[in-house]
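Troubleshooting log. The previous structure file for this entry was overwritten by mistake, so regenerating from the original sequence record. Sequence copied from the archived sheet and checked twice against the printout by T.R.
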Amino acid sequence: MMRFLLLSLLLALPIGLGWADDSVQVVMSSQDGSKSLSAEKPLRFGKVRKTKDPVIEVDLSKTCQTVLGLGASLEHATCENLSKLSPELREQVIDKLVNPETGIGMNLMRVCIGTSDFVGEPYYSYDDLPEGETDPELAKFSIEKDKAYVLPAIKIALQKNPNLLIFASPWSPPAWMKTSGKLGTGRLKPECYPAFAKYLLKFIQAYEAEGVPIYAITVQNEPDMSDPNYPTTLWNGEEQRDFIRDHLGPLFKQNSVKSLIWCWDHNWNKLEFPRAVLSDPQAAQYVDGTGFHLYEGRVTAQSAFHQEFPRQAHLLHRRLRVSRQWRDTADPHPSELVPFVQCLGDHAGPAPEAQPRPARRQRHLY
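Regenerated output below.
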């Protein structure tokens, strides 16, 4: 059974150039369930005094990171677990996650374009074909499988919080677009760049038709990862630069797509990848943000990248599992914070091997 331990310190909102008051609201939930979003005694700002307790210093004269959103991942494993609950309990759980009045008010969610590595059914894209067949016009494109339990969960979340922002990432294009001919491993074939750009466009349009607007997309989740056992696709910075510059960006502009484009979406230790994209003005004009993961490299890469591209704002993107501790980082320059939690349940890893698999201003997410 998945259990959460959450302690939230919510600063009072500023009014004009000052603070509404000097209090800090404290809301606590305990792992044993004895406290659930319980209001505790407020804390107040005061002068530093000798104490053995931790001290939080707040300098109102300095502005650091802004917060785009705090949220979770509504990928397939999470949505499947939610679908197994009774309708009443499912709504209650989602309400506690995203409702800003009766819950913790998560306001940003990541979803998958196709399936990720966390799924309890065969991996799929939105245009799977028998081996040897292609569909460059995407005549067989369909998000029908997402309607089973993914879209219902997302729609409930949007009902509970209409201001919820959704961003999306593919783990793999359809297999017929790739050099490997499989969802796992391989690269996107250059001749399929137009088709994949159209694929991402059709995803955005299909979700919007379902009442789910997409705030932003990344071109590829973890483009430096290749694994034959689950959907992965290799890209280098030059390939993604060309794809965004010559295909995805112009297609979005031609179709008046409001969804933002975020590049990279991998670790701190490969700055040459987003550098290749953002160093090209024709590609960079279409890129709103850069996604980073924390699995490899050091947070100091964030400052180095900021110094190299000083006009771009920065976002801190964190993905956490419920068993991990939320550790903060010392980021001296403006950024936006986006931590993530996902409820994996029994699907805390790739599907079994025996499972069948179908043949502007830029910001930096950390």
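Helices lie at 76-83, 87-98, 150-160, 193-209, 237-254, 272-278, 281-284, 300-308. Archived copy saved in two places this time.
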